[in-house]
Amino acid sequence: MSDQQPVELTIYGRDGCHLCDVAEQVLLDAQLQWNFRLIKVDIDTSDELFKRFLERIPVVELAGATLFEFDVDRARLDDVLADAGTMRFDR
Question: Fewer Cβ atoms within 10 A, N terminus or C terminus of the chain?
């Protein structure tokens, strides 16, 4: 059994953002196949986050690097998770 920790993806968004809801659902669906931790950050909780992300949400990051802005491409997400060595669940 591996001691490897799951990778962490962070999604930045805010309540009432339809694109954020759609992107989050893509990530939640991906969690059914991939072992990763999803961290949800509401940009309305910080002036700095609000200024940094408002015009780009949703934003998805892996290890501080931006993977997606505005939407999540599921095929690319699968490639990124595979390249990161993320464990894939058997179906």
Answer: N
- Enclosing domain of residue 77: 27-83
Q: Specify the number of domains making up the chain.
A: 1
Contacts of 56 (CB under 8 A, 6+ apart): 69, 70
Work out the pLDDT band at 1, boundaries 50, 70, 90.
very low
- Position 20 pLDDT exceeds 80: yes
Q: Is residue 67 part of a domain?
A: yes
Q: What span, in angstroms and rounded, lies between the C-alpha atoms of 9 and 64? A: 9
Strand positions, DSSP E, the chain? 7-13, 36-42, 59-62, 65-69
**In this structure, what is the dihedral angle of CA atoms 37, 27, 57, 19, given to the nearest 10 degrees?**
-150
| pLDDT range class, residue 75, cuts 50, 70, 90 | very high
Q: Would residue 6 count as lying in a domain?
A: no
